[in-house]
Design goal:
Strand 18, helix 12 and strand 19 form a beta-alpha-beta unit. The protein has about 625 residues and is an alpha/beta fold. Helix 7 packs antiparallel against helix 14, helix 9 packs parallel to helix 13 and helix 16 packs parallel to helix 19. It starts with a strand and ends in an 18-residue tail after the last helix. The chain has 19 helices and 24 strands. 6-O-phosphono-alpha-D-glucopyranose (G6P) binds next to helix 9.
């Protein structure tokens, strides 16, 4: 979703900003823009619909000099994607320019008031209201930009990360945050700001994560200053980035998505490292021992998440229920927050989020806190909002995920949820120790099993050619394989734009079976588990209606091999670990189908990697 970059220093800001925008492309956007204060004191704003490369083309013959600037990738919310609605937005007098990530909920009221006071608007965005309001306050109160931003933000309802520059004060950017991410990088005689650390990491490892309701004075000449809306200085807490440039590059792969699929043996190894002892006999997962009583006394666990993370969470439900015998509910964060949930201090809420910034998940966490529940976070991005707003939690440690379609984060989330369930089960004594030890031993082999699964790449690529032009797909699974079916269908939809539906295999009889014919492929996830015989029946039911079946089975499978049209054999692992293995061929299948169709797999249309607005 929208991305912000800012630079103030002695280098050419434009180059840094454009590079930064490219780094943020993965978040998803539909237009881009840049504002620069030129050495001659002009404030130049250039913007363009479409890719950052369009903006670069547009800027070729423009004045892009200057050491201070802000830039933006926009994911449209208020107003269509267009040059006019793209950020930065100018104030009417063109004295200040602003970029914004988030939504201003009361923009209509503010806009009407400003129009009554004579302001003229250029765009349909909520953002322009903010820049006009700041400038109105600055000029009418004859105050500094910092004071004007502070006063304007007191009137704003909504979520924002903003950066504002001023023609007549070229060495400073004023930035602020509430519910949308903002990171500041501190260099020598220069500072950077961005929605995440990816545009900053090649210049400095010293960063400050701006907190809600903080305003930052980002200057070339002065140390970073943070104040709150009451004008009180707040602490500047400098952290060291644990991120490297190579993690942000494709490393020889044609797409980030393929790179990330193939990284899974090593990301899972990183995810397990230090958490499972050599023999698999001890599981150590941060936050669980410290909050032992909370988990042991939980009357219920509620997992809140969105998208792929919700699918991982559904697997988490099966795991925790099976291993810990604690009732678990899994909720879409966006539904949960408006469902008037019944919550109290005996509930444990687990928030699962790759980015750690999903607005709905953050809102769900806040509700849980207000109701007195204990909140545990599972996320990937170190320093993001969810880990900072939970009582305890852990990271999945799979490294930056750039492909919009989540792959390695999904398997990392499932792995962490498995380890979490095992750790609680051990504390609770809800599962025989020998059984836990056996799973622990197998977990240590998972990276190798995933590596073996990836050797099926060529087979899956060939298979994808047969199904590239299908209009619909059905994905079926039971038990642990049901969320895998949902995730497989989501992956295909997201990047190939083929309609795909994931369904519990037995529920097929209550609807989707009507769709089955020779034209519609059905992907059936049928590893060696306690529901195997049941799913054999479901395969028969599809075949009896001349459906074409692609089955994911365990090595050594006997029955489905003889009935399905196409079989992908993956390593045979304990039932609770099957999702990590069976999801991998589905990732590859979606990838190759999308590639065959010529789609942009890393940046699928309309999608955003980090959904920072409701
Ligand atoms: C977006 C992304 C998905 C992701 C979902 C939840 O829709 O495109 O890949 O699963 O948001 O994001 P989170 O960062 O909270 O896991």
């Amino acid at each position: 979703m929208c991305g912000i970059v800012g630079y103030v220093g002695n280098r050419n800001a434009y180059d840094i900003l454009i590079k930064g925008l490219h780094r943020l492309e993965y978040r998803g956007y539909d237009s881009a823009g840049v504002a620069l204060v030129s050495p001659s004191g002009k404030l130049n704003v250039y913007k363009s619909r479409g890719k950052v490369s369009n903006l670069e083309d547009y800027c070729k013959d423009k004045d892009t000099t200057g050491g201070t600037g802000i830039a933006h990738t926009r994911w449209a919310t208020h107003g269509e994607p267009s040059d006019r609605n793209a950020h930065p937005h100018f104030s009417e007098d063109e004295e200040i320019a602003l970029v914004h990530n988030g939504t201003i909920e009361n923009y209509k009221v503010l806009k009407d008031a400003l129009i009554q006071n004579g302001c003229k608007f250029q765009s349909e965005t909520d953002t322009e209201v903010l820049v006009q309001l700041i400038e109105y306050i600055r000029t009418h109160n004859d105050c500094s930009l910092l004071d004007a931003v502070k006063e304007a933000l007191k009137q704003v309802v909504g979520a924002y990360a903003i950066a504002v520059i001023e023609k007549n004060n070229p060495d400073t950017i004023i930035a602020a945050r509430k519910s949308s991410p903002l990171v500041i990088g501190i260099g020598e005689g220069e500072m950077f700001l961005a929605s995440d650390a990816t545009p900053i990491v090649e210049y400095t490892k010293d960063v400050v994560y701006v907190k809600d309701n903080e305003i930052a004075v980002v200057s070339k000449t002065e140390p970073l200053k943070l104040i709150n809306l009451n004008n009180e200085e707040t602490k500047v807490d400098v952290k060291t980035l644990q991120l490297s440039i190579s993690q942000l590059e494709k490393g020889g792969y044609p797409h980030f998505m393929l790179k990330e699929i193939f990284e899974q043996p090593s990301t899972l190894r990183d995810c397990i490292r230090g958490r499972v002892t050599e023999e698999g006999k001890k599981i150590i997962i941060s936050g669980v021992l410290d909050s032992k009583e909370k988990f042991l006394n939980a009357k219920r666990i509620i997992i809140v998440a969105c998208g792929t993370s919700w699918h991982a969470s559904l697997i988490g439900k099966y795991l925790i229920q099976d291993m810990c015998r604690i009732p678990v509910e899994v909720e879409y964060a966006s539904e949960f927050r408006y469902s008037n949930p019944v919550l109290d201090d005996r509930d444990v809420v687990i928030a699962v989020s790759q980015s750690g910034e999903t607005a709905d998940t953050l809102a769900a966490i806040q509700m849980a806190h207000e109701a007195g529940a204990y909140v545990y976070g599972i996320s990937n991005v170190v320093g993001s909002s969810i880990p900072r707003n939970t009582d305890s939690g852990t990271y999945i440690h799979v490294g930056p995920e750039i492909g919009v379609a989540s792959t390695k984060a999904f398997t990392g989330q499932v792995m962490v949820l498995t380890l979490l369930a095992m750790a609680i089960a051990e504390l609770k004594g809800s599962m025989p120790k020998e059984e836990l030890d056996k799973i622990g031993e197998e977990i240590l082999k998972i990276p190798e099993y995933v590596k073996q699964t990836l050797e099926l790449n060529d087979q899956i690529e060939r298979l994808s050619l047969i199904f590239t032009y299908a209009h619909n797909f059905l994905y079926l699974g039971r038990g642990y394989s049901y969320p895998v079916a949902l995730e497989g269908a989501l992956k295909l939809k997201e990047i190939s734009y083929i309609h795909a539906e994931g369904y519990p295999a037995a529920e097929m009889k209550h609807g989707p079976i009507a769709l089955i014919d020779a034209e519609m492929p059905t992907v059936i996830i049928a590893p060696n588990d306690h529901l195997y015989e049941k799913i054999v029946n479901n395969v028969q039911q599809v075949k009896a209606r001349h459906g074409s079946v692609i089955a994911i089975v365990s090595e050594g499978d006997k029955e489905i091999k003889n009935i399905a049209d196409h079989v992908i054999e993956v390593p045979d692992v304990p039932e609770c670990l099957t999702p990590i293995i069976t999801s991998v061929p589905l990732q590859l299948l979606s990838y190759y189908i999308a590639i065959n169709k010529g789609k942009d797999v890393d940046m699928p249309r309309n999608l955003a990697k980090s959904v920072t607005v409701e």
